[in-house]
Amino acid sequence: MNSPSAEKHHIPLNDGNSIPLLGLGTYSKPQKTPKGACKESVKLAIDIGYRHIDGAFLYLNEHEVGEAIREKIADGKVKREDIFYCGKLWNTCHPPELVRPTLETSLKTLQLDYIDLYIIELPMAFKPGDKVHPMDENGKYIYHNTDLCATWEALERCKDAGLTKSIGVSNFNRRQLEMILSKPGLKYKPVSNQIECHPYFTQPKLLEFCKQHDIVIVGYSPLGTCRDETWVNVSSPPLLEDSLLNSIGKKYQKTAAQIALRFNIQRGVVVIPKSFNPDRIKENFQIFDFKLTDAEMKDIENLNKNVRYVELLMWSDHPEYPFLDEY
């Protein structure tokens, strides 16, 4: 692989398309995010040089992402084909007959003709309906019988219809990936698996398995996560305070965050750090002007604590909860 640069940092996908190694994550709690913050962040990111935006129906801000992309196209800053947008199929939309209408709803919200990558956000189906988190009167989540292969076939049809260029998955473990890969009549392999991945959780076994099957790993929470105890394991140490990452950072005049991001892209892992902070969005992009040595890569790999920040324990009783298996 040529050394990626700020201008050119795409890596190939198994279907002939390609994905930029660095993207902007756009997840934020709608209640806590000022209106327009997402749109301004996406516009700034495109100005800085980001070409990969990671979003989702669930984030309730696809309209802002779409506006930002369309404004930058109208300004002549980018063409549509320069931008790589990833959208996600939520848990309540797994039944095959709901997949295409759900993607079409996202396209309508974004006001785009197609998206670049559509992924199954989680391997766990919830009861379909208007509520994204359906619960019974006792406050228990209402699950739905999951047939991941049938959902996958519906994604394949969306690709054939030109609604998305590529299709992939997220938070799938090895067994769930194998189920799709060995499905009779498989038309397209997943191009990617979006999973938590950072120096405290390097995912060596899943990374190796995906490499063998030509599936790109997209690492979410590449800088650790926010400390929101409603869904994050806050008992684990904050990644960016790590002394090794900070000392390597001093050598290159970079921050611990930039070292953590560089570590992953040098392993061929795509990173999608989320930020709506203009300085951080700029800083996260400045990872193409230096290279970690093999020894530094090894040292950072050795930081692995097998610590998951995003455990999603509230759904650990779902039959397809992915994190009970070793990988």
From TrEMBL:
<dbReference type="GO" id="GO:0006699">
    <property type="term" value="P:bile acid biosynthetic process"/>
</dbReference>
<protein>
    <recommendedName>
        <fullName>Rho crystallin</fullName>
    </recommendedName>
</protein>
<dbReference type="GO" id="GO:0047787">
    <property type="term" value="F:Delta4-3-oxosteroid 5beta-reductase activity"/>
</dbReference>
<dbReference type="InterPro" id="IPR044483">
    <property type="entry name" value="AKR1D1"/>
</dbReference>
<feature type="domain" description="NADP-dependent oxidoreductase">
    <location>
        <begin position="22"/>
        <end position="304"/>
    </location>
</feature>
<feature type="binding site">
    <location>
        <position position="144"/>
    </location>
    <ligand>
        <name>substrate</name>
    </ligand>
</feature>
<dbReference type="InterPro" id="IPR023210">
    <property type="entry name" value="NADP_OxRdtase_dom"/>
</dbReference>
<keyword id="KW-0273">Eye lens protein</keyword>
<dbReference type="InterPro" id="IPR020471">
    <property type="entry name" value="AKR"/>
</dbReference>
<dbReference type="Pfam" id="PF00248">
    <property type="entry name" value="Aldo_ket_red"/>
</dbReference>
<dbReference type="InterPro" id="IPR018170">
    <property type="entry name" value="Aldo/ket_reductase_CS"/>
</dbReference>
<dbReference type="GO" id="GO:0005212">
    <property type="term" value="F:structural constituent of eye lens"/>
</dbReference>
<dbReference type="InterPro" id="IPR036812">
    <property type="entry name" value="NAD(P)_OxRdtase_dom_sf"/>
</dbReference>
<feature type="active site" description="Proton donor">
    <location>
        <position position="59"/>
    </location>
</feature>
<feature type="site" description="Lowers pKa of active site Tyr">
    <location>
        <position position="88"/>
    </location>
</feature>
<comment type="similarity">
    <text>Belongs to the aldo/keto reductase family.</text>
</comment>
